[in-house]
DNA sequence: CTATGGATGCGCT
DNA sequence: GCGCATCCATAGA
């Protein structure tokens, strides 16, 4: 009989108040660090956001940089919606659209600390290791069951739920991961000391 | 621990 | 055709 893995999360964190859609009607550079520590749930499974990256529409690494296309059109719409795309033909990645309608900026959600729906997350990932469940943009989408069907959805309506953090976290910044353009911009944000990051800062 | 390469869908040139 | 906002298994230090 396999030994049950020891849980890393010491306590079940309480949820903050629900984030309103207007939370995203600000600069992507304000929204991105404010998302660290928030709780992101899809269908009741998810956890605390530990790592994000900002993609501004003037940034060559942003999908919206070259203008609207069928894939990225939701980025050119109102803020507070999801943008899901396929990465490397295999993985899904989820973004939150920010700023005024048409500005086409978004925050890539890169990692979460699992706190809710652990059994479902483990089942979808085919993994027991809590640290590996959602410590990467593709991993967390698989763990939460996010696919293209979850794109262009409002972030304040089921099946998505967002709760504001209850305490101000210490935030670390760094350069973004896995991109080939604008590689030096320090637009990656992380929860200091978290064991649930995709890579060290 | 770090480094490397394969799998894979699809948007865009 | 080319090139990715990735993950994982494997090899080597």
TrEMBL record:
* Catalytic class of the enzyme: hydrolase
Q: Which NCBIfam families match?
A: 3mg (TIGR00567), PRK00802.1-3 (NF002003)
Q: What are the record keywords, sorted?
A: DNA damage, DNA repair, Glycosidase, Hydrolase
Question: Its Gene Ontology molecular function terms?
Answer: hydrolase activity, acting on glycosyl bonds
- Its domain of life reads Bacteria
Q: Which residues form a coiled coil?
A: none
Family to which this protein belongs: Belongs to the DNA glycosylase MPG family.
Known EC number: 3.2.2.-
Q: What is this protein called?
A: Putative 3-methyladenine DNA glycosylase
**InterPro entries linked:** Formyl_transferase-like_C_sf, MPG, MPG_sf
Task: Return the Pfam families for the record.
Answer: Pur_DNA_glyco (PF02245)
């Amino acid at each position: 009989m396999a030994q049950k893995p020891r849980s890393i999360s010491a306590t079940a964190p309480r949820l903050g108040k629900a984030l309103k859609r207007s939370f995203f009607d600000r600069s992507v550079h304000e929204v991105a660090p404010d998302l660290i520590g928030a709780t992101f749930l899809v269908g009741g499974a998810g956890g605390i956001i530990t790592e994000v990256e900002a993609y501004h529409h003037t940034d060559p690494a942003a999908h919206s940089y070259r203008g609207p296309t069928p894939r990225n059109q939701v980025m050119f719409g109102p803020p507070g919606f999801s943008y899901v795309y396929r990465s490397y033909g295999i993985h899904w990645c989820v973004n939150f659209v920010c700023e005024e309608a048409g500005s086409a900026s978004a925050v890539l959600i890169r990692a979460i600390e699992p706190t809710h729906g652990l059994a479902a997350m483990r089942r979808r990932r085919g993994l027991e290791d809590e640290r590996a469940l959602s410590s990467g943009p593709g991993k967390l989408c698989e763990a939460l069951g996010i696919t293209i069907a979850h794109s262009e959805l409002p972030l304040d309506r089921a099946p998505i739920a967002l709760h504001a953090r209850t305490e101000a976290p210490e935030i670390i910044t760094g350069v973004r991961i896995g991109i080939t353009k604008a590689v030096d911009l320090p637009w990656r944000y992380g929860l200091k000391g978290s064991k649930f990051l995709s890579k060290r800062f």
